[in-house]
Amino acid sequence: SDSLRALADDYNLKIGSAIIPFDLDNPAYAKVAGEQFSSVTPGNEMKWETVEPTRGTYDWSKADRLVSFAEAHGQQVRGHVLLWHNQLPGWLTSGVADGSITKAQLRDLLQKHITDEVAHFKGKIWQWDVANEFFADSWSPQPLANGMNGDDFWVKNLGTGIVADAFRWAHAADPKALLFYNDYNITGADGTNAKFQAAYDFVKSLKEQGVPIDGVGEQGHLDTQYGFPTKMQQDLQAFADLGLRVAITEADVRTFVEQTDDKQTPTDQLAMSAQPFYYDQMLKACLAVRSCISFTVWGFGEADSWVPGWFTGEGYAGIYNTDVQPKTAYYTLQQDLQLA
Ligand code: G3I
């Protein structure tokens, strides 16, 4: 077979996609999801706001549906995400804001959340994104001395040590799952590469303290207007040299588009070529690093891509189009796996 998953098997690499379980009702979507990928990630359905919308009442149904799909199709699951500032339940953030949830209680609630969620999926998750997006960007208002974002909800309320605790709690609940730190722009940036350096120093110190971290995920959300981050392979290798696995966890490549009906067409010809080229370069960076164990795209299609809702005028970010037909980017990845 020349599916992405079959071709990648030769390299012991899993090819993954974020999946919206609801979309599996569409047979064309479900067929691609099952045939092309050997790993799946729920895009939203394991996030705290989804699994505990009401305090004390869990709803695992959407995530369970994807886990069953993965079992039926011989796929691994990347669990996403245990500790993140975004998509927290309203009862939690409002309780912290009005003081009805104290810091000590917040810490207990987080420990319970991580413990219960990891226990619910015990034995079914290959890699967990334990902690997500803790490092400051060049535009962040409150960077700490260690490069973390001082404005982060968790850092503000519980301090930077909460990240190590999250790894310890997750490990206690499922000792066999691979535990990842996940972030964007922590590999490949040109110039000072400050965000890579901060993340590198941090995970190195976690390793030195014996915190159970197994890997680092570079999300891989790229935009053709910024140029390809050429140090990606080098930076992935640096994490690997610490004894960690690495992965590309949320690859997509956006460009400026004209939107007509349901179609997103890049506004310039060069961007149309750069889009598949950036995918090619990302996969090649992963293939060149022995410890790179998975390459996941953040939704293979474009019908419900997060990009148009977040970046005005941008789109065309996936490897399949809105009609679930493969684009040039798909054939580029396929060719990379055939030639590698
Ligand atoms: O569920 C509500 C629905 O009830 C409401 O009608 C609708 C109206 O806007 O919104 C729905 O919530 C949306 C949610 O996705 C579920 O579909 C939110 O508006 C929307 O903002 C949210 O976006 C998600 C985003 O994370 C928010 O944090 C994207 O789908 C998801 O792909 C994206 O994923 C993140 C990764 O987790 C971490 N790395 C970055 C990546 C891209 O932002």
UniProtKB/TrEMBL annotation:
Q: Which SMART domains match?
A: Glyco_10
What lineage does UniProt assign to this protein's organism? Bacteria, Bacillati, Actinomycetota, Actinomycetes, Motilibacterales
What Gene Ontology molecular-function terms does this entry list? endo-1,4-beta-xylanase activity
EC assignment: the record states 3.2.1.8
Query: Which keywords label this protein?
Result: Carbohydrate metabolism, Glycosidase, Hydrolase, Polysaccharide degradation, Signal, Xylan degradation
Please state which protein family the record places this protein in.
Belongs to the glycosyl hydrolase 10 (cellulase F) family.
Could you list the residue ranges that cross the membrane? none
Entries under PROSITE patterns matching the protein = GH10_2 (PS51760)
What's this protein's name?
Answer: Beta-xylanase
Query: Broadest EC class?
Result: hydrolase
List the catalytic activities from the record.
Endohydrolysis of (1->4)-beta-D-xylosidic linkages in xylans
What processes in GO biological process is this protein linked to?
A: xylan catabolic process
Q: Which domain of life is it from?
A: Bacteria
Which organism encodes this protein?
Answer: Motilibacter rhizosphaerae
Q: Which InterPro entries match?
A: GH (IPR017853), GH10 (IPR044846), GH10_dom (IPR001000)
Keyword field contains Zinc: no
**Is Transcription regulation found in the keyword set?**
no
Instruction: Indicate the segments forming the GH10 domain, all copies.
Output: 1-336
